[in-house]
Amino acid sequence: MKRIEIRKNDANQRIDKYLKKLLCNAPVNLIYKMLRNKDIKINGKKVNERYILQEHDILEMFLYEDKFQLYTQEKDIYSLKKEFKVLYEDEQILVVDKPAGLLVHGDANENINTLDHQVLSYLKEKGELDLSRENTFMPGPVHRLDRNTSGIVIFGKTLNALQDLNEMMKKRHHIEKTYITICSGCLRERKELVGYVKKIDNEDRVQFVRKDDPDALYMKTIVEPLKWNAQFSLVMVQIVTGRMHQIRIHLSSIGHPVIGDRKYGDFQLNRQLKQKFGLNYQLLHASRICFCDPFGSLRYLKGKEIVCDIPDQFRQIEKSLIESVF
After folding, report:
1. Which regions of 31-162 does DSSP assign to beta strands (E)?
2. What is the number of H-type helices and E-type strands within the chain?
3. Apex 21 CA angle, 16 and 25, nearest 5
4. What's the CA gap between 179 and 286, in Å, rounded?
5. Angle, CA 57 vertex, CA 56 and CA 61 arms, to 5°
């Protein structure tokens, strides 16, 4: 029989979800069969799959050690060079500055040197990761940025923090996210942009659709011009919703695409900017977050603002392209 004491980062979740992560190599039907057959108990009592684990619960599984080793998996944390900068860190969260060119999560072309793996490597070096087989939780990002978008990414370091951050992101207005970009054309006035989009099947892009489309996702973006001239504008953008490529497609829809944007941008202008500055991606930077109305385990962050400096290349392009302010 295998006995496991539930730790803080594995508490407050359904037992079946915990077991699926713990026994990641076991057939799912085996887990539910063990629950039905009383082969799994909590504090000596049978529970069903909806039981919510509590810290210090004693989980008993009628499973031989060799089977436990077979069904579980040792955690493989890569030793990676840290390319991100730490902007804020406490016991619950980590806020980092991701450089342009680094993926948050892996894809078909790169699945090792990613921001999430670099963060795990960083936390392992600090001795803050529990790598035992009995522990199922791993810190992770709450949101993502496109590979070539730079700036702020938030990580939850505990299960409670990750759950609360995910809830805040879903409900909106709890975490305010602000971006800086340069778009083409003269944009002088503040705009509140709304629309509906959906992801195009088998493509890494979205398109505008009607409100009554069954896959329509509501999108709201607030654009505030900071500097401008006849050809370019430096703008601050607040995303009220968090849709794929939201800023890029919304600015493009009003005739002011983000410079360097290879999906929704001005392709002729992009070629000129690539020749002049070597810019081969959208010039977009996640510059600020504010915990306006945090709750749960993160109430203590209320009013906390974190700012991320604009990258040097961005500043150089801004200085070159935007010479006068009106």
Report:
1. 40-42, 45-46, 58-61, 85-89, 93-98, 140-141, 150-156
2. 8, 15
3. 110
4. 4
5. 130
| Sign of the C-alpha dihedral computed for residues 276, 264, 244 and 233 taken in this order | positive
99-109 average pLDDT score: 88
CB 205, CB 322: distance < 8 Å: no
User: DSSP letter at 264?
Assistant: T
H or E stretch at 290: strand 284-291
Q: Are strands 93-98 and 217-228 parallel, antiparallel or unpaired?
A: unpaired
Cα 11 off chain centre by: 22
- C-beta separation of 255 from 187 below 8 A: no
- Tokens at residue 210, please? 């009607």
pLDDT at residue 323 above 70? no
- As a whole number, mean pLDDT of residues 159-176 equals 92
pLDDT at 106: 84
In terms of DSSP bridges, do strands 150-156 and 284-291 run parallel, antiparallel, or are they unpaired?
parallel
Q: Is the pLDDT of residue 121 over 50?
A: yes
User: pLDDT per residue over 20-67, tens digit each?
Assistant: 999 999 999 999 999 999 899 999 999 999 999 999 999 999 998 899
Burial-class residue 19 by CB neighbours within 10 Å (0-12, 13-18, 19+).
Answer: buried
Provide DSSP, 77-102: -------SEEEEE-SSEEEEEEPTT-
Cα separation, 32 vs 27, whole angstroms? 9
pLDDT digits (tens, 9 = 90+) for 286-303: 999 999 999 999 999 999
